[in-house]
Design brief:
Blueprint lengths: L2 H14 L3 E7 L9 E7 L2 H17 L6 E3 L6 E5 L3 E7 H7 L1 H4 L4 E4 L8
Parallel strand pairs: 2-5
Antiparallel strand pairs: 1-2, 1-6, 3-4, 4-5
Helix pairs in contact: 1-2
Amino acid sequence: MQNESLVQLAIAALEDLKAQDIVNIDVRGKTSVTDFMVIASGTSSRHVKSLAENVLEKVKEQGVRPLGSEGLDGGEWALLDLGDVVVHVMQVPTRQFYDLERLWQGAEQSRAQHLGDPE
């Protein structure tokens, strides 16, 4: 699966369960760890866990084998390593504290456009 398609699949899986403030950061050429980071917020530990598990389920359905995951038990910050795409799902206070968007501010960033009406 192409990297951009994997990013879109992860974003769609996050949107399915109403993730908040989804951001895609293109870090190609900025780090050798990954090509894209997807960052999203959940409203509670249960929501963060559900969002992360939904992403894992959807990518596995498409034949993608995740390299690893962390934080699913705690629910404050879940990290999904999909190889060239890393997905971070955090509760809002954790996301504000670590501020990954600012850390990667030199990289191209785009906010996901929600498909449905926000209400």
